[in-house]
Amino acid sequence: MDLIANHISHRFGDLAVLDDVSFTVGAGEVVAIVGPSGCGKSTLLSILGGLLQPNSGAPELRGAPPADSLNPLTFVFQDFALLPWATVEENVEFPLLHTQLSAVQRRALVDDALRRTGLTDFRQTYPKQLSGGMRQRVGISRALAVKPAILLMDEPLSALDSQTRELLMEDFVRLLADGGMGAVYVTHNLEEAARLADRIVVLSRRPGRIREVVTVPMTRAARGEAAAREKLLALQNQIWSLIRNEAIDAEREVQHA
Amino acid sequence: MLDRATTESAAKDATTRRVRFRGAGFVPASSRFGGWIALALVIAIWQAAGSVGLVNPLFLPAPSAIARAIYQLAISGALWQHLSASLLRIGVGWLLGTAAGVAVGFAIGLSRLARSVGITFISALFPIPKIALLPLLILWLGIGEEPKIATIALGVFFSTAISVYSGVDAVPRNLIRMAQSFNVPFATIVRKVIWPGALPAILAGFRITASVALLLVVSAEMIGAQYGIGAFVLQAGNLMQTDQLLAGVVILSVFGLAVGKVIGWLEMRLLHWR
């Protein structure tokens, strides 16, 4: 299943946020979206996931999702969005409650998702008892439980410390390794984008337009090797040179707002 | 000259001194028995003042006289007669007002139409002292229990509706968006996200409405009732039986405390995740 951003434009009142953004996320592909602060990255993700209606253009799907997918487009949120009154297990089961699955089937999906994210021993724990990294693992586990075709990740690591970010990045690389699941990964961190994405969509300053789409010229598996580091760094520098001046302007604009 | 000054300064700096602790206080904590000890102390002073004749018992009966009055009320059966009448009015009035308030509060919190209509009416009617409506309610509903119960229900309704829709408004939007992103149906979002999210505000509202109900039952019983704690207090006041009057006040206070404890227990059970 492909996800297509088809000439998407959006305004919040008088403020133009996105202007004619078009690109396609192929099946199993990971596309990162980067750009200066306020360029509409998160807005674009909300539109792609059907949580926000664009002023013009539309998000579209091409092809059928995998037969076992319960929610083809599934978000992983920056702030985790966990139900604080529910245990880890109940949070992961929450999106399955309204499906036709039996309790046994739901339990199997929850068990599998918890196992894949290393949360099996924390199933009865409440979110407030977990660290930020573990909370985000619950968010990822909940997303995996519905067997998504494409994960929509809105800066999923930005609220975490650098060590936790590193550990979760390794988890993302592992989860996306087999190509069975695609992702749109919104981030302001170019290193994360270069490490995870097959292609990087670079947006301009507000209103966000596509400045360039950069293809990462190596497999994700190869990016862990020492020889790849220099190439990835060069790629990050290339993208940074594209957005640096606009990032400075955007930061000043935010400060003066 | 400069070298000497630097050396002296270095010698002065070599002595160590402890950094003064400045972080005490401003911590919202209370000692477990502090309140009870203070209460016991006040009662003891009050009793002592009465016993040595410092206070005229007509103006302020001693705690022992009030305890005696409560005991006599209990053994005569009058306590239960008055208390049961008040409890029935409070119970029925509170339940009716709460049920209607929760329903209307959720409607206002969830529906744009209900919000625009409901908030206008609530803003207009909430500030009216409900006891002022009692004569009108007697005219409409007769002189039985109904107008008193309706007065309590009205008073409870507005506070409940306001706390419920405020609670619904306070549910983090990101949780609702999360649920929508998983195509969770509206009813499940209300049941599994909005209801538990609004519960802290709803329970906080219950504390207020329990006090409102107590206030209104006493007022209503003072205006038109033969039995009930309010009627008893008014009767005792008219007869200058201040020990009886204060016995009624103590019973009301104990009732308020008991309700507070029940709500505290409910909060502990239902909001343990906080």
Automatic annotation (TrEMBL), chain A:
One of its GO terms (molecular function) is ATP binding. Pfam families: ABC_tran. Residues 3-226 form the ABC transporter domain. Transmembrane segments: none annotated. Keywords: ATP-binding, Nucleotide-binding, Transport. InterPro entries: AAA+_ATPase (IPR003593), ABC_transporter-like_ATP-bd (IPR003439), ABC_transporter-like_CS (IPR017871), ABC_transporter_ATP-bind (IPR050166), P-loop_NTPase (IPR027417). The keyword Transport applies. PANTHER family: ABC TRANSPORTER ATP-BINDING PROTEIN, TAURINE IMPORT ATP-BINDING PROTEIN-RELATED. Belongs to the ABC transporter superfamily. Involved in beta-(1-->2)glucan export. Transmembrane domains (TMD) form a pore in the inner membrane and the ATP-binding domain (NBD) is responsible for energy generation. This is ATP-binding cassette domain-containing protein. It comes from Bradyrhizobium cajani.
UniProtKB/TrEMBL annotation, chain B:
Probably part of an ABC transporter complex. Probably responsible for the translocation of the substrate across the membrane. The lineage of its organism: Bacteria, Pseudomonadati, Pseudomonadota, Alphaproteobacteria, Hyphomicrobiales. It comes from Bradyrhizobium cajani. InterPro entries: MetI-like, MetI-like_sf. CDD domains: TM_PBP2. Keywords: Cell membrane, Membrane, Transmembrane, Transmembrane helix, Transport. GO terms for cellular component: plasma membrane. Belongs to the binding-protein-dependent transport system permease family. The chain crosses the membrane at residues 36-59, 89-110, 117-143, 149-168, 212-233, 245-266. The keyword Transmembrane helix applies. Coiled coil: none annotated. It is a multi-pass membrane protein. This is ABC transporter permease subunit. It is found in: Cell membrane. GO terms for biological process: alkanesulfonate transmembrane transport. Residues 83-263 form the ABC transmembrane type-1 domain.
